[in-house]
Amino acid sequence: MYNILIYSIILMFLLMFLLSLLMYVSHKSMKDREKSSPFECGFSPFESSRIPFSSHFFLIAVIFLIFDVELVIIMPVILVMISLKTIDIYIIMLIFLIILTLGLYHEWYNNMLNWV
């Protein structure tokens, strides 16, 4: 128990030292050209935030989230494969991939995937 207390105190001092070193080293400068340039979405950080938002960036973000959630759904199927029959797994995956393909076709048909 005494060892845990000593290690905790040493770790706390080490973390405080690293934090103070980081504060000393990371001097921020507003003169940096890259900091004042627009970032990813095209908005300038020094303009008004009440300008119209492009719906194209929103649609791309939604498409990214949909395909990200798809990965979260597919990963547990590997664990479920152990307890199900082989034919059940193929049917579940086939239905899932058909729904995903129909969604991709819908996005393609409505020109949501055009980057221009």
Describe the structure.
The protein has a domain at 53-116. It contains three helices and no strands. The chain has helices at 2-25, 55-80, 86-109. It is flat and about 55 Å long. 0% of the residues are buried. The model has no long low-confidence stretch (mean pLDDT 76). Keywords: Electron transport, Membrane, Mitochondrion, NAD, Respiratory chain, Translocase, Transmembrane, Transmembrane helix, Transport, Ubiquinone. This is NADH-ubiquinone oxidoreductase chain 3. Core subunit of the mitochondrial membrane respiratory chain NADH dehydrogenase (Complex I) which catalyzes electron transfer from NADH through the respiratory chain, using ubiquinone as an electron acceptor. Essential for the catalytic activity of complex I.
